[in-house]
Design brief:
2 domains, mainly alpha, 193 residues, Arc Repressor Mutant, subunit A, single chain
């Protein structure tokens, strides 16, 4: 019989505090506070500012941890699409899933956009999100994409947050209409490929 490894109490408390800080940061962002201060984050997490800064060297480090959490949540929420289903069904499933995932990451994407030009960590997470979308596309549409890198580039671009934000925020489309626009664009790109 194998006994589970013993967890040091201090390590467990430290991990709980770190998670509480990241949770508070993301909660504030999800509630619309796109630039939460360290003071507001610490207060919501139930920790002191000193504890916040002992776990994160600066806001960049906290944003990186929050970016990792958003990516993990996105990965947990993603469901593969069967590549052998009819094309129209795959397009519909892909666009439904993209709409759902984009709505889930929306608050974090808005907050990230404010600081991304100045944050190498946030730029890295943007590239990881782009890579995830490219992987979703190549997995769902292997026969249609083949070696056509331009088609994959075009599909990736319309499936990312900036396009979704244009439909949802700049054009004020409801989720279903934005999803319909995405479906139409993806369908049109496949039809002209």
């Amino acid at each position: 019989m194998t006994t589970p490894p013993r967890v040091d109490g201090r390590t467990a408390r430290s991990e709980r505090t770190r998670n509480a800080i990241v949770d508070a940061h993301l909660r504030l962002i999800n509630e619309g506070d796109l630039r939460p201060t360290a003071d507001r984050i610490a207060k919501l997490a139930g920790v002191s500012l000193r504890a916040l800064w002992s776990h994160f060297a600066d806001m960049e480090a906290l944003m990186a941890a929050s970016g990792q959490r958003v990516l993990e949540q996105r990965d947990a929420s993603y469901r593969p699409i069967a590549p052998d289903a009819p094309l129209a069904e795959r397009i519909d499933a892909f666009c439904a899933q993209r709409a759902r995932l984009l709505e889930e990451i929306g608050p974090a994407a808005r907050a990230s956009a404010l600081k991304e030009p100045f944050s190498s960590g946030l730029q890295r997470y943007r590239r990881l999100h782009v890579a995830r979308v490219r992987e979703e596309l190549t997995t769902a549409f292997p026969g249609e994409l083949g070696a056509d890198g331009r088609l994959l580039d075009a599909l990736t671009a319309i499936s990312l947050w900036p396009t979704w934000a244009t439909w949802r925020e700049a054009m004020d489309l409801p989720v279903e209409e934005a999803r319909a626009a995405l479906t139409r664009a993806v369908t049109a790109l496949f039809a002209t490929a």
